[in-house]
Design a protein that fits this description.
- By secondary structure, the protein is an alpha/beta fold.
- It is built from 13 helices and 12 strands.
- Helix 11 crosses helix 12.
- The longest helix has 27 residues.
- The radius of gyration is 22 Å and the shape is globular.
């Protein structure tokens, strides 16, 4: 049983795909105005491990997580597991305490109020590594466990630190941001959500086939770019003309809020195939720029229509694809154009923690802790909002 406290110390664990991540976070403020102080945040990337295969290999990801988890936990404990105030106090304490790894771990875990861990969605072999590691720590130190949803991590990542354009934005009153429209865009998901408060949200639509990040990766492979494809597409697109090729915008005119990117990817495939058959050169930069623009147009059109329909005060974008600066710029320009005559135009909030990390898991775990929302402590690769 977790006793409700005004301030809680959280150890969070994320292993849903190819990033092993742990964080040590202090949370306070409740659902009215949650605040997070970060005292430890470590991530081990597996990009180089999976790059030769053009995508994430579940078995390799699992093995890497098993190797990385104890190493990262030790790093959190030894180097980043002390708050600034405690660090000052530690200077006057017996130095043997700091050198004794086991004692240091016990001291660290004694401060933890609960452990939160991703249980889905993701690759189940990878998810289980984090879950089992969390269970072992919880049993060893008699700590409560809070299983949480990776997608809610993205949804609540705006609470940690945000940017409006290139300017850092501090949330002073969370309630004034709602209702909001949240767009989660990653390699595995494209989801549009209406958020009425931190405890109430409703999924409006999602992709019916490929996620937008998946489409980026597949198109990158078609034009010979390495994995992960998203950053490579954006880099190459800077040298191309986004208007050069009129790729389709699937479902852009549909009244629902679902997405489809499989057809867009197939159009790129056919375009390259036809040029190859004709013996013509492949304009890779133009393909990258035109594809990126087509994908962005769909995301923007549907998101802004939802903003209008529900009178949203803010737009929150998260997930790995939100790191794409070109898409961020296109969003900002579209908002400026569509709402230029409106005094209170919706605020565009892009999470700084767009890629997979444990900080967003700490945030979602804290919200689940406050809401008493419980997920099963088992891996669920298909878990959704």
């Amino acid at each position: 049983m977790i006793q409700k406290k005004q301030i809680v110390n959280i150890l969070s664990i994320e292993t849903s795909c190819d990033e092993t991540a742990l964080s040590f976070v202090t949370a306070s403020g409740g659902l009215e105005n949650p605040k997070f102080e970060v005292y430890g945040d470590v991530v081990a990337s597996q990009i180089k491990l999976h790059q030769p295969y053009g995508g994430v290999v579940p078995g390799l990801a699992k093995r890497a997580h098993l190797e990385n988890l104890p190493v990262l936990f030790a790093e959190i404990v030894q180097k980043r597991g002390v708050t600034p105030a405690e660090a000052g106090v530690q200077e006057g304490i017996d130095s043997d305490l700091r050198r004794n790894d086991n004692t240091r771990e016990v001291e660290f875990m004694d401060r933890i109020d609960f452990i939160t861990v991703t249980v889905g969605p993701g690759l189940e072999p990878a998810l289980w590594t984090g879950i089992e590691f969390a269970k072992e720590l919880a049993a060893k130190y008699d700590k409560p466990l809070v299983p949480t949803n990776h997608l809610e991590g993205h949804l609540y990542s705006f609470l940690l630190s945000q940017k409006v354009g290139d300017t850092r934005y501090e949330i002073r009153d969370v309630g004034k941001m709602f209702p909001a429209i949240a767009l989660i865009v990653s390699g595995g998901h494209t989801i549009l959500v209406r958020v009425d408060s931190l405890s109430e949200y409703k999924k409006l639509g999602e992709t019916v086939d490929d996620a937008v990040g998946e489409a980026f990766d597949k198109v990158a492979r078609l034009i010979g770019l390495p994995y992960p494809g998203g950053p490579e597409i954006e880099r190459l697109a800077k040298d191309g003309n986004p208007m050069a090729i009129d790729f389709p915008r699937p479902m852009i005119g549909h009244k629902n809020y679902n997405f489809s990117f499989s057809g867009l990817k197939t159009s790129v495939l056919y375009y390259i195939r036809d040029l190859t058959k004709a013996g013509k050169s492949i304009p890779k930069a133009d393909i990258a720029a035109s594809f990126q623009k087509a994908a962005a147009d769909v995301l923007i059109k549907k998101t802004l229509r939802a903003v209008e329909e529900f009178g949203a005060k803010s737009i929150m974008i998260s997930g790995g694809v939100s790191a794409n600066r070109t898409i961020r710029t296109l969003f900002a320009e579209a908002i400026e154009k569509k709402f230029k005559l409106k005094k209170d135009r919706p605020l565009l909030i892009v999470s700084e923690f767009s890629t997979d990390n444990a900080l967003m898991i700490a945030a979602s775990g804290y919200i689940d802790y406050l809401r008493k929302k419980k997920y099963k402590m088992e891996a669920n690769g298909n878990l959704n909002l």
